[in-house]
Design goal:
CATH architecture: Alpha-Beta Barrel
Oligomer: single chain
Shape: globular
Keywords: Flavoprotein, FMN, Monooxygenase, Oxidoreductase
Number of strands: 14
Strand order of the largest sheet: 5-3-2-1-14-13-11
CATH superfamily: Luciferase-like domain
Distance between the termini: 13 Å
CATH class: Alpha Beta
Largest sheet: 7 strands, parallel
GO biological process, one term: alkanesulfonate catabolic process
Radius of gyration: 18 Å
CATH topology: TIM Barrel
Protein name: Probable F420-dependent oxidoreductase, Rv2161c family
Organism: Actinacidiphila guanduensis
GO molecular function, one term: alkanesulfonate monooxygenase activity
């Protein structure tokens, strides 16, 4: 069972991003397998759509958000072994040339440890802030993946789609991992799950411990991914899964560790990203919590 943790990026942990390198080194030394960032370009004051696409509010814990690319770069320089992932970057918000350059740089700094995860997001205001249309975000995601494929595997590189255009350009600097870093895709809705099956190298689901942990639901979602993969002529077993585990305030480390074990036993998922954003206030607490969860989850 592989266990990773979110870097100090949001809420009060974001006040200590100067300790990102320390956090990354210490948690790696404690036995973690991966380190992760999320993506929140802004949290609207009066959101049209609420957190996760539900309601009309966004948790205050997401108001402060550090840059995911900077944090991954710092963690890449501070560590030797752990994978470095995003769960998830809102890929359609970024021009593909800039997104590809940023991720290529992180992959090379880390000697090929990048695990890029992408999603389409749920906030109309984030799209308004970039000048992109919210309702085309699914199509832009598809084209972003195509454009990254071209940028990462060809030189010169170019791409022409309905929504995106990348002019022919010299592209000799490639990621370490060949032919390209894997595409991990966040998905909960049926169209998004089918996209994972058609073209994802990995799936990034979500749960909350203990308030929203539906193992049967995860198994059912994975079945849809597998079905879509078979329909596309792909081997479902080639699609990895990393489950994001958000920890509720007041939850014990023992409860988190037991949840990881239960999910692993009943679903086969063997890689987890634990986010203590809501559960602990500062980097010291995040470090001690991570070390204790690793110890308890691998005990027995």
């Amino acid at each position: 069972m592989r266990i990773g943790f979110a870097l100090p990026q949001f809420h009060t942990q974001a006040d200590e991003i100067d300790r990102t390198a320390e956090f990354a080194r210490t948690v790696e030394d404690a036995g973690a397998d991966s380190l992760w960032v999320g993506d929140r370009n802004l949290a609207a004051v009066r959101p049209k759509i609420g957190y996760g696409g539900q309601g009309d509010t966004i948790p205050a814990e997401l108001n402060a958000a550090a840059d995911p690319f900077v944090l991954l770069s710092v963690a890449a320089s501070a560590t030797q072994r752990v994978l470095l992932g995003s769960h998830v970057l809102i890929a359609p918000l970024y021009p593909p040339v800039q997104l590809g350059r940023l991720l290529t740089s992180i992959d090379r700094i880390s000697n090929g440890r990048l695990l890029p995860g992408f999603g389409i997001g749920w906030s109309p205001e984030e799209y308004e802030a970039t000048g992109y249309e919210f309702h085309t975000r699914g199509a832009r995601m598809e084209e972003t993946l195509d454009a990254l494929e071209a940028i990462w595997t060809t030189d010169p590189a170019q791409y022409q789609g309905r929504h995106l255009f990348v002019p022919a350009h010299h592209a000799p600097l490639k990621p370490i991992r060949r032919p390209r870093p894997p595409f991990y895709l966040g998905a909960m809705s049926e169209p998004a799950l089918r996209r994972v099956g058609r073209r994802g190298d990995g799936w990034l689901p979500l749960c909350v411990v203990p308030s929203w942990l539906d193992i049967d639901g995860l198994v059912g979602q994975r079945a849809l991914v597998d079905q879509s993969a078979r329909e596309a002529g792909r081997d479902p077993s080639s699609i990895d899964t990393v489950l994001r585990v958000n920890v509720d305030t007041g939850t014990s480390n023992e409860t988190v560790a037991e949840a990881l074990k239960a999910v692993h036993e009943h679903s086969g998922i063997d890689h987890f990203m634990v986010d203590t954003l809501y559960a602990v206030p500062d980097v010291d607490a995040a470090i001690s919590t991570a070390a204790e969860i690793v110890r308890l989850a691998r005990k027995g």
